[in-house]
C-alpha cells in the first residue's frame, strides 16, 4: 500500500501544523484537513493539494461529512484533542469527551470502512512510575521507571484526582482502537508523544489565546511579561523533550512505511533530552537572556507554588517520563536528532521573535 490521500483531524494545532508543512513540502499527498482554527496554517490555505474544513467534525452536521472524508482517504491521522493539564481537573467532562467520546465515533467509522488510523495518544498513559511509589525511591533501577510500549504497566491515581481524566480517556481510546484491530481487523498505529517542544506550541495568554497553557508557554509568558516563572511543587518532576521536527520525522516515516507502522504503538521521545522542570526554567531564562541580549534575564525570578495553588484541586503530577524508543528505531529507522540545547534555543528564539522583539522595539 502507498499512501496518497490523507485526512488529518486537528491539522491546525501544534503537531498538525508542522506535519502539514512536511507533507505539503513533499508534494505527493492530497490532504483533507479539519480544525476549528486556521491561525497556524494560514500559509497553506491556497495550496491546491490541501482541502481545509474549518468546522467541528464531530457535530451532528459534521459527522456525515467526516464519514465521507474517511471513506475517500488512505489514512486518518487523529490529532484533535484537549491536551492541556490545566483543564484535566477543572474541565474533566470536556476532556473525556474530547479524548474518548469523539475518538470512539471516529474509530467506529474507520472500522466500518476498514481505514488505517494513526492516532495521537500520550506518554501520560503511563501515569506515574513504579519507582515513585517506593519508600526511599532513588530511580536506581531503570526497570522501575523506563517506559516500554508493550510491557510497562499504566499507573494512575484515584478518581478524585481528576488530573488523570485525560490519561484515562487516552488509555481507553488506545484499548478501543486495539480491540477494533484484534476483533475487526482495522489497521491502527498509535504514538505516545513525550513533551514535543517547538515553534507554535500552545498559545501565549493575552497575545494569541486565553487560559493556562503547558509549561513551555507558561515560562515563555513569564519571560515576555517580566513576571516570575511559577515552579510547581519544587520543579522536581522530570520530562524528556522532543523537538517538533524529530516528532514530525517519525510521523512522516509512518505514512511512508505503512507495513512497518501498522498495528504498532510507538513511544516518540528523546531520553537524552531529559530535564527536571527546575532545570528547564533555568535553561529557558538563560536562552532568553542570550537571544534577547538582555543579561538581566539570567537572574529572572523563579517562584515556587504548590500544584493545588497553580492547577486547583485534583492535580497530581507524572514524576518522570523516560521513553524506550527501540521499537521506532527498529521498525521505522527513526532516531531523534535534536539535542536539548537546540530544542530549547530554537523554541525560545521563535517566541522571542514572534512576541518579545516587538515589545522591546515598542518600548524603545
Ligand atoms: C502534558 C500532557 O498532559 C501530555 O499528554 C502531553 O504529552 C505533554 O503535556 C506534552 O507536552 O507532550 P505535562 O508534561 O505534565 O503533560 O504538561 P506541562 O504543562 O508541560 O507540565 C510539565 C511540568 O511542568 C509539570 O510538572 C508541571 O507541574 C510543571 N509546570 C507547568 C510548572 O512548573 N510551571 C508551569 O507554569 C507549568
Q: What does this protein structure show overall?
A:
The protein is of the alpha/beta class and 364 residues long. The chain has helices at residues 14-26, 62-71, 85-88, 92-113, 164-184, 215-225, 244-256, 258-261, 277-292, 307-311, 326-332, 340-363; strands at 5-9, 30-34, 50-53, 75-78, 116-120, 146-147, 188-193, 196-197, 229-232, 238-240, 242-243, 264-268, 274-276, 302-305, 322-323. It has a 7-stranded parallel sheet, with helices on both faces. Strand 1 (5-9), helix 1 and strand 2 form a beta-alpha-beta unit. Helix 1 (14-26) packs across helix 7 and helix 9 packs across helix 12. The longest helix has 24 residues, at 340-363. The chain is globular and about 55 Å long. The termini are far apart. The chain binds uridine-5'-diphosphate-glucuronic acid (UGA). Uridine-5'-diphosphate-glucuronic acid binds next to helix 6 and strand 9. Residues 83, 85, 122-124, 166, 193, 195-196, 214-215, 218, 230-232, 235, 237, 239, 277, 317-318 line the site of uridine-5'-diphosphate-glucuronic acid.
Amino acid at each position: 500500500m502507498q499512501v496518497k490521500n490523507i485526512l488529518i483531524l486537528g491539522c491546525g494545532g501544534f503537531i498538525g501544523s508542522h506535519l502539514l508543512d512536511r507533507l505539503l513540502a513533499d508534494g505527493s499527498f492530497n490532504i483533507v484537513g479539519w480544525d476549528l482554527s486556521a491561525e497556524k496554517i494560514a500559509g497553506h490555505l491556497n495550496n491546491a493539494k490541501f482541502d481545509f474544513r474549518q468546522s467541528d467534525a464531530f457535530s451532528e452536521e459534521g459527522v456525515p461529512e467526516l464519514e465521507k472524508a474517511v471513506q475517500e482517504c488512505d489514512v486518518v491521522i487523529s490529532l484533535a484533542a484537549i491536551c492541556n493539564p490545566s483543564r484535566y481537573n477543572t474541565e474533566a467532562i470536556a476532556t473525556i469527551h474530547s479524548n474518548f467520546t469523539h475518538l470512539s465515533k471516529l474509530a467506529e467509522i474507520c472500522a466500518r470502512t476498514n481505514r488505517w488510523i494513526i492516532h495521537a495518544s500520550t506518554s501520560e498513559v503511563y501515569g506515574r512510575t513504579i519507582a515513585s511509589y517506593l519508600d526511599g525511591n532513588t530511580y536506581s533501577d531503570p526497570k522501575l521507571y523506563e517506559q516500554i510500549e508493550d510491557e510497562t504497566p499504566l499507573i494512575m491515581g484515584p478518581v478524585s484526582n481528576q488530573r488523570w481524566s485525560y490519561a484515562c480517556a487516552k488509555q481507553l481510546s488506545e484499548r478501543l482502537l486495539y480491540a477494533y484491530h484484534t476483533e475487526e481487523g482495522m489497521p491502527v498505529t498509535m504514538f505516545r508523544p513525550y513533551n514535543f517542544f517547538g515553534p507554535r506550541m500552545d498559545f501565549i495568554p493575552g497575545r494569541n489565546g486565553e487560559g493556562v497553557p503547558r509549561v513551555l508557554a507558561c515560562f515563555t509568558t513569564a519571560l515576555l511579561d517580566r513576571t516570575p516563572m511559577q515552579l510547581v511543587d519544587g520543579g522536581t518532576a522530570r520530562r524528556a523533550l522532543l523537538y517538533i521536527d524529530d516528532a514530525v520525522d517519525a510521523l512522516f516515516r509512518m505514512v511512508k512505511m505503512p507495513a512497518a507502522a501498522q498495528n504498532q504503538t510507538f513511544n516518540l521521545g528523546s531520553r537524552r533530552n531529559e530535564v527536571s522542570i527546575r532545570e528547564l526554567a533555568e535553561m529557558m531564562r538563560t536562552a532568553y537572556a542570550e537571544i534577547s541580549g538582555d543579561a538581566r534575564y539570567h537572574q529572572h525570578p523563579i517562584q515556587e507554588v504548590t500544584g493545588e495553588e497553580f492547577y486547583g484541586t485534583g492535580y497530581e503530577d507524572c514524576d518522570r517520563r523516560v521513553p524506550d524508543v527501540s521499537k521506532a528505531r527498529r521498525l521505522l529507522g527513526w532516531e531523534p536528532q535534536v539535542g536539548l540545547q537546540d530544542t530549547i534555543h530554537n523554541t525560545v528564539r521563535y517566541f522571542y521573535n514572534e512576541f518579545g522583539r516587538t515589545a522591546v522595539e515598542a518600548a524603545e
